[in-house]
Amino acid sequence: MDNRPIGIFDSGLGGLTVVRELMRQLPNERLVYFGDTGRVPYGSRSPEIVKRYAAQDCGFLLEQDVKYIIAACGTVSSVAADVLQALPVPAMGVVEPTAEAALAVSKTGRIGVIGTSVTVRSSSFERAIKRTRPDAQVFSQACPVLVTLVESGWVEEDNTATEAVARQYLEPFMEQRIDTLILGCTHFPLLSMIISRILGEDVTLINSGATTAAKCTSLLTQRDMLAASDRTGGCRFFVSDQPHNFAGVAEMFLGRAVSEDVRQINMEGVG
């Protein structure tokens, strides 16, 4: 038993899809979420900068006495795995559990990946998939504009502008005859309905937020690190920019209103 909280961080608010799933799967756990909204996006930055930011983000969470850290960011998970491995508490990213989930459902081994530019250039999902299934064919597409559209709240199922952008990105996958698509950025599950309409029902979407939360649940259970069953769960929210727009955007990711206080922190003194 370990009643310390679980720490989750992302470059913005997409990691709240992981928080949503953790709250559903582990209602007794207390969570600490940090969104680095003052330095978003990570996906267009150099790997060196991403690693430095990731180390600072983890440093802040360690100050909150967390027992486990989740990098709920495809970019960090792709290029800063060494940062996570060096931490004094267990940590995980989204790449490995998401790749495992894709392999479990793909019948043809033709798997698509959408993510940020850094994630796609790193080939992290492809490497993770091919370690288990060397004959798999992985097709990747960077979709930076979709990240911006989600952060702006353009996620309605009937949003024609978002669908037009998504179609531009996704049409090559139709020719590549994929049967599985990894949503390699935690923003993208909010666009699942649009993406499914474009690719069709024969393509299975893999939600990195849900698969990562499920893996965390499994690992904490195996290590006897779950909180006491009589504990009341919840989440504390922190951001690195002004939090005045947080509640409205966060509600999209969490599927509920945000009544908790949201604190702004200065990252210059962290790490």
Quick summary:
The protein is an alpha/beta fold.
Care to describe what's here?
With 271 residues, the protein is α/β, with parallel strands linked by helices. The chain has two domains: 6-93 and 210-269, Rossmann fold (3-Layer(aba) Sandwich); 95-208, 3-Layer(aba) Sandwich (Rossmann fold). The chain is 45% helix and 17% strand. The chain has twelve helices and ten strands. The chain has helices at 16-25, 47-63, 74-79, 81-85, 95-105, 117-122, 124-132, 144-151, 160-176, 192-199, 208-222, 246-254, and strands at residues 6-10, 30-35, 68-71, 91-92, 110-115, 137-142, 180-183, 204-207, 234-239, 262-264. The protein has a six-stranded parallel beta sheet with strand order 4-3-1-2-9-10, sandwiched between helices. A four-stranded parallel beta sheet has the order 6-5-7-8, sandwiched between helices. Helix 5 packs across helix 7 (124-132) and helix 5 packs across helix 11 (208-222). The longest helix has 17 residues, at 47-63. The mean pLDDT is 94.
Widest sheet, order of strands: 4-3-1-2-9-10
As a percent range, the share of strand residues is: 15-25%
Would you list the SSEs in sequence order as H and E?
A: EHEHEHHEHEHHEHHEHEHEHE
| Biggest sheet statistics | 6 strands, parallel
Helix content class: 40-55%
CATH class of the largest domain reads: Alpha Beta
Number of separate structural domains: 2
* Count of discrete alpha- or pi-helical segments spanning 4 or more residues: 12
From the 3D structure, determine the CATH topology of the largest domain. Rossmann fold
End-to-end gap: 29 Å
Cα shape: globular
Which structural class do the helices and strands define? alpha/beta
From the alpha carbons, calculate the radius of gyration and give it in angstroms: 18 Å
Which whole number gives the mean pLDDT? 94
Q: Give the low-confidence spans.
A: none
CATH architecture of the largest domain: 3-Layer(aba) Sandwich
Number of extended strands: 10
